[in-house]
Amino acid sequence: MGDSRLWQLLLPITVIGLLASLASAADVEDFDWESITPSSTLSYKPCYQDLQCARLIVPLDWQNSSNPHNVVLAIAKLPAKVSDDNHMFGGTIFTNPGGPGGSGIDHLLRRGHDLQVIAGTQYEILSWDPRGVGHTSPGADCYRGDIMARDVADIQAEAIGPLDASHDAFRRRWAGAKAAGQMCQATMEEGSILPYLSTASVVRDMVAMLDQVHAPKFHAGMDVGAGTEKVLEPMDVPRIMYWGFSYGSILGNTFASMYPGRVGRMILDGIADADDYVKGTWLTNLQDADAVLEDFYRGCFSQDRSCSLKKSSDTKWEDIKNRVDGFITQTTQNPITIIDNHDITVITGADIQLAFIPTLYAPLSLSRHLSDLLSDALGGNYTLLRADMAQTSPKLHDYCASEPKPFTGRDAAHAIKCADGEDETNHGMAYFQSYLDELKSQSQALGQHWTKIRLACSGWSTRPKWRFTGPFTTPEPDASLVEGKPAAPILFLSSRLDPVTPVRNAVNMAQGHPSAAVVIREGAGHCAASAPSTCIFRIIREYLDKAVMPENGTSCLPDCDPWTPCPLSIKLLDNSLLSRRHFFL
Length: 585
Known about the structure:
- This protein is an alpha/beta fold.
- It is built from 18 helices and twelve strands.
- It has a domain at 40-140 and 193-217 and 235-282 and 468-572: Rossmann fold, CATH 3.40.50.
- Helices cover 38% and strands 13% of the residues.
- A ten-stranded mixed beta sheet has the order 1-2-3-5-4-6-7-10-11-12, with helices on both faces. A two-stranded antiparallel ribbon has the order 8-9.
- Helix 6 (199-218) crosses helix 7 and helix 9 (289-301) crosses helix 10.
- The longest helix has 20 residues, at 167-186.
- Keywords: Hydrolase, Signal.
- Residues 96-288 form the AB hydrolase-1 domain.
- GO terms for molecular function: hydrolase activity.
């Protein structure tokens, strides 16, 4: 059904998650979510080491109160360093890591403390697994728990090769994508989650969570499962504080546009074009991707010793690029084979190109690793390259595990993005071939991979019960808490060179929200958060605490670059190597 290697590389669009350590989700201390009794009101239980967890019941179908089925949301929060009845308590910041289909629980476990340090320890940080994802139930699983069938599909896709390897490869990948969507459709039954995974439904879940977070203040006991809400004065209506990354910017933009009177503070980082997203065309993402790759080569050339890929004979950055491009061409025409006992590794040009993707997202963390990997490979040492390939290649799992874990992230991602966009099932193979050519003209580095996002919807006939397509706008904010108006303008963040959410998206999306400001962190990487910047951290704190807005177009320098060490005191979002295995945005 899927491209497992792409899944493990492209899906980390949120840099907070992207910069996590190599530890997998299984390495994080486990918690038995079944030990929490689901409730229509928030009831927390200690979980993991220092978090509080809850399971909240919400309707499956927010548009139809007669539908008897429910969703149980897995929610976790990192408490503030002060109690919530202390006058210093800042409130609850909701955060989403991106995706679609990203696990908020994993996001909070990996980066909750970092976010709290940036925002201020007087805030509690809350995240959740959106409907269909992770510990939230029911999960989206097109294979109905058949892990072997899923692994076989991944291995078959790997064997076919990249979309642009040949016409035959494209034809087979297109046919496989259509069949996968049809297979998911066949799994639908009464109470299936698939038609209810749109961003609009997730936003309505957020409203329910927001009401529950604030319910104790009003002794409302609002039962979201029963669909009842206490009527409050505009001054008392709960308003969200939200911090979203990449697809999380779509989620936040949708929330603000659907419920502008529920916005307190909203920080959106790594801005996706919401209008393009709901069309399902994915045509506004890659405009700066190749510039990010060029930035890697330029940075490498500027170094004397930090970049192992540079040679003393290089006179310009293009010399380095041409050497690598030549190696890619050579291995495309004559793949490298390595025999290690009974393990055979075949390295092609596509494998080398795939190794670039994590660095495009997180150059601060991964540029030196990529330079070492390429330098070694050019010299005939493939250890680092093989290790990266092992991280992303599809594997056969333990099918007889005593407690097999359901695989839900990828199917939820497909369901959400296909539901939010237009129906793609009426497009034939020639249409998608032209689409591939168009994306490759935007970016040689990512065009082929990005095509697979939309291609996955080519056979997805399940349409959502609720879909929001805009307009993505809000009225002029009013700090006096007027009904139907945000309490503060929206703060948009972006890096100068972002491989998948170019800065122009931030400028365009901000135009729909009066008094909004765009802050640009200079340098490359996905989201402003891909490199620490005390300038941006200061702006975030002033915005959260006092609703102080920076000047629109403010430029902030990063505190370090990919080729110089970061001071430990500000190394909040920097870890070793990429571990995210999910999500495109």
